[in-house]
Structures are given as C-alpha cells and as structure tokens.
Design goal:
GO terms for molecular function: nucleic acid binding. The chain is α/β, with parallel strands linked by helices and about 270 residues long. It folds into three domains: about 30 residues, no CATH class; about 55 residues; about 160 residues, Nucleotidyltransferase, domain 5, CATH 3.30.420. It is built from twelve helices and five strands. The chain has a five-stranded mixed beta sheet with strand order 3-2-1-4-5, sandwiched between helices.
Length: about 270
C-alpha cells in the first residue's frame, strides 16, 4: 500500500490476507486465552491425574464454560499438559516426637496398615488399632481396600463401646492424611500425631504388634478367602488380648492389665471420696 499506492482491498488480495485480519488488532495468545488457561490450570492443580477429556468435560458440564474442545485442546497442548506429568505430594514437616508409653489407658491409639495375600494370590490389607497405654489391640479390620472412609467407620464403632482417645499416632499414608479423616478427628477433638516420614520406630508400639501378628498368624497359615482371614484374625485378637502375656505389662495379658488399672482407679476415687 505504501510502495504501490494500492487500496486495502487490492493489497489484501495480492498477499492473500483477509481484510478482517488486516483490521484486527493483534492480541498475544496468553492474553486471548487467559480465562481458558486459568480455568484449565485450576482443574489440573486439583486433579493432576486427569486427562484432557476429563478436564474438558469438567469445564463444559460442571463449570459451564462455553469453549469448544478444539480451543481447550489448543491451550492444553500449549501448556504442555499432554506430556507425562510427574507429581509427588510433598508431606508437611513432621516434628520428631519422643516415643513414650502413655500413663493412662485409652489416651493414645496407634494405627497402622499391613498387607498379605490369599493362597491364590489375591492381596488384602489389615488396619490395626492399638491402645498404647494397655498395649491392647482394639481392632483389626480386614479387606482388599481400606480407604479413609473405612478408617472412620472403624473408629466410630470403637467410639460406641470404648470411647475415643485424645491422640492418634499414625504414619503419612494417604488414608491417614485424607481430609475426611482430618476433619472427623478435628470434630471429635482428637490430635493427630504423625510420625516423621521413613521413621517407623516412632510408631514402635504398633510395629511390635504387627510383628507378633505376622509371626504368629499371617506367616503361619494359608488363607483361602477373606472370611477365613477375618475369622482367624478375630480368634487371634481375642487370644492376644486375653491370654498372651506381655513383657512390658509385668508379663500379664493386656485385658488383665487394663482391668487392674480400672480397679486401682476406682479404689483411688473411692478413697478420695
């Protein structure tokens, strides 16, 4: 147009450019797709394992954004979200707490998971809950999957007949760090004492219990199905609490020790009264 004095129409035709593109003010892609980038980044941040179609369906049907899949896919690729993403959840810093046996029963409970397999190879898990004050095993839950909701259900069952402790000692597994469990414990006034990552010795009471369970039951028998596992675990649990002497309890079983503690407490309260 400057060199040959052509009109806009003829100049655009000569170079193959539409007049709409000529008059349109250039806008950087980051600015043009700012809303898409923000919405897509928010979804990926919350659900880092979702693929493109999961993200698009969430934006389209849940958040009601008007963008079509081609535009979202273009931004998705520009952000390199189509490439494999390595994500690792960083655990908060855990203070190293000294392991001390509580002086009272039903004050601190220790929780931990174990795993084993049936005879035909199917794996299953065990959730062990131990009262550190009496070294008494309160529950052993058995199933192929034990999410946070299942942990809460077991704690609710224990609450009905045993009450709840002031503190739970546990590791940093996803079931124990789940928000559902954290909120449930906060609502019941229970402190969560997480051990430092890679330091199972900070949860030594339940680890010692796990060893006994592994040596005396899990490694001693072959199990055909989960019902058989649950039945044998129940009988072993009863024997552990009522019959098996514990060295740290003056060589008496946990239930006998707990009964002695309750009797001393009642006698002391009677004398005080």
């Amino acid at each position: 147009m400057g060199q040959h004095g052509l009109a806009v129409r003829r100049a655009c035709t000569a170079v193959g450019l539409s007049r709409a593109a000529y008059y349109r003010v250039p806008v950087p892609a980051a600015e043009r797709d700012r809303e898409v980038i923000a919405a897509l980044s928010g979804v990926v941040e919350r659900h880092h394992r979702w693929g493109f179609w999961m993200c698009f369906d969430h934006l389209k049907r849940v958040q009601n954004h008007p963008w079509n899949h081609k535009r979202v896919w273009r931004v998705y690729r520009a952000l390199k979200l189509n490439l494999p993403r390595r994500t690792k959840k960083r655990l908060p810093k855990r203070d190293s707490l000294p392991l001390q046996a509580p002086s009272a029963i039903n004050t601190v409970w220790a929780l931990d998971f174990m795993s084993d397999a049936l005879y035909r190879g199917r794996t299953f898990r065990l959730l062990n809950i131990l009262d550190e004050g009496a070294r008494e095993a309160l529950a052993i839950e058995v199933d192929t999957n034990l999410p946070a909701e299942r942990v809460i259900r077991v704690l609710e069952q224990l609450k009905a007949w045993r009450g709840l402790p002031k503190r739970l000692r546990l590791d940093n597994g996803p079931e124990f760090t789940a928000q559902r469990l954290v909120k449930w414990c906060a609502g019941h006034g229970i402190e969560l004492a997480y051990i430092a990552p890679g330091k199972p010795n900070q949860n030594a009471f339940v680890e010692r219990f796990n060893r006994s369970l592994r040596h005396e039951l899990l490694d001693a028998y072959l199990f055909e199905d989960l019902d058989q596992v649950r039945e044998m675990v129940w009988w072993w649990l009863c024997s552990y609490n009522a019959e098996r002497p514990h060295r740290s309890l003056n060589r008496i079983p946990p239930m006998m020790y707990r009964q002695q503690v309750l009797e001393r407490r009642s006698s002391t309260s009677g004398v005080s009264a």
